[in-house]
Amino acid sequence: MKMYYDDEVDALYLKLGDETPEGVIEISEGVNLDTTSEDKIVGIEILNASQKMDLKTILSELHIQSRTPGWCWRLERSSLMWRSS
To answer: Are 4 and 77 in contact (CB under 8 A)?
Structure first.
């Protein structure tokens, strides 16, 4: 599992597999499941994430000291990586 957080748009994405999503199921406002054509869940998107969950808990576990605008956090098995947004 890989996790991405974009603080510019306050979106959290959990990538659950390497398959390419072919559909989206909205399970509640701003919470979407990415699915394959076989209805396999390959991702979870949470919009306005800081309003729906305690992001401090997730991000503080990684001891993040600073943020750079225009970058996304990529969390992969407790290691921190960067990618351009």
So the answer is: no
Cβ–Cβ under 8 Å, residues 69 and 82 = no
Local confidence band at 61 (pLDDT 50, 70, 90 cut-offs): low
User: What are the structure tokens assigned to 61, written together?
Assistant: 């576990």
Query: Which residue matches tokens 């992969």?
Result: 76
String of DSSP letters for the chain: -EEEEETTTTEEEEE--SSPP-EEEEEETTEEEEE-TT--EEEEEEETHHHHS-HHHHHHTTT-----TTEEEEEETTEEEEEE-
Look at 13 and 78; give whichever has higher pLDDT: 13
